[in-house]
Specification:
The chain has 214 residues and is mainly alpha-helical. It folds into 2 domains: 4-131; 143-213, no CATH class. The chain is built from 12 helices and no strands. The chain has helices spanning 4-21, 30-41, 47-59, 62-70, 80-93, 98-110, 115-123, 125-131, 143-152, 160-170, 176-191, 195-213. The chain starts with a helix and ends with a helix.
C-alpha cells in the first residue's frame, strides 16, 4: 500500500510536470482552477495537493510560489497560525505577494468559524505532525506519467467521464508539444487492452464531439 508520504512526493512531481509544461499563453486561471477541481475530487480529497502547496509557499522558487498562491481553492493551512507561517515565509522571499497574503488572512478572519472547526484545529495533532514531515523531492513526471497519475488516483467510483473531463480541461493548459504527447497516450489507451483507459478515451471523444456540434 502506498504511504501518504510517497503519494505527496508523487503529487509534487505531478504538479511540477504541469508547471513546467504549461503554455505561457494559456489563461492564467486555467491550471489553478483545474488543480482546484482535482483537490476536491481525487482519492485523498486533495490532502497531498494541499501539503505540496504549503511547502511551495514556505520553500518554493518564484514560479512554484506564484502557482501556490494561485491555487486558492482552500486556505493554505488548517489554523491561522499555520496560514500565517506559510504566507510569511513566502512574502519574505517574494514581497510582491504581500497583497495576496493580506487578502487570504482577511478572508480567514472574516469567515464565521463554527465551534466544531475550532475543535478540529486543536485535535488534529497527528495531521499537524505529518505536515511537518519532509519528503524527498522527485524529478518532474513526464506527460505519460502525469496521465497515469490522474487515472490512478480518481475519487472512489468516479466514472470515466470524470477523468475525461479532467483531461479535456488539462489540454489547453499545456504547450502544443505536451498536448501532442497526451494525444499519443490517448491513442495507446484506445488501442490497448485496459477497458478503463479505453472508456476514458471514448468519453473524451464524446466531449469533444459534443463541443463541435454545439
Amino acid at each position: 500500500m502506498q504511504s501518504a508520504l510517497d503519494l505527496t512526493a508523487q503529487t509534487e512531481a505531478f504538479l511540477d510536470c504541469l508547471r513546467v509544461r504549461r503554455d505561457p499563453a494559456a489563461d492564467a486561471r486555467a491550471l489553478p482552477d483545474l488543480l482546484g477541481t482535482l483537490s476536491w475530487t481525487n482519492d485523498d480529497n486533495g490532502h497531498a495537493l494541499e501539503l505540496v502547496r504549503e511547502r511551495w509557499l514556505r520553500e518554493g522558487d518564484l514560479d512554484r510560489t506564484e502557482l501556490a498562491f494561485a491555487m486558492d481553492d482552500v486556505f493554505p493551512g488548517r489554523t491561522r497560525a499555520e496560514i500565517l507561517m506559510n504566507l510569511t515565509a513566502a512574502t519574505r522571499r517574494f514581497p510582491q505577494f504581500d497583497e495576496k497574503a493580506r487578502v487570504i488572512l482577511e478572508h480567514w478572519d472574516a469567515r464565521a468559524r463554527p465551534a466544531a472547526d475550532q475543535v478540529l484545529d486543536q485535535v488534529q495533532e497527528s495531521d499537524a505532525a505529518f505536515r511537518e514531515l519532509a519528503w524527498d523531492p522527485l524529478p518532474p513526471m513526464s506527460v505519460v506519467e502525469a496521465m497515469e497519475f490522474i487515472v490512478d488516483h480518481p475519487a472512489p467510483n468516479a466514472p470515466p467521464t470524470y477523468l475525461a473531463e479532467i483531461v479535456d480541461e488539462l489540454l489547453p493548459c499545456l504547450t502544443a508539444q505536451a498536448q501532442a504527447e497526451i494525444h499519443v497516450v490517448c491513442d495507446d489507451w484506445a488501442a490497448g487492452a485496459d477497458a478503463w483507459r479505453a472508456a476514458i478515451v471514448e468519453a473524451l471523444l464524446r466531449i469533444r464531439l459534443d463541443r463541435q456540434n454545439a
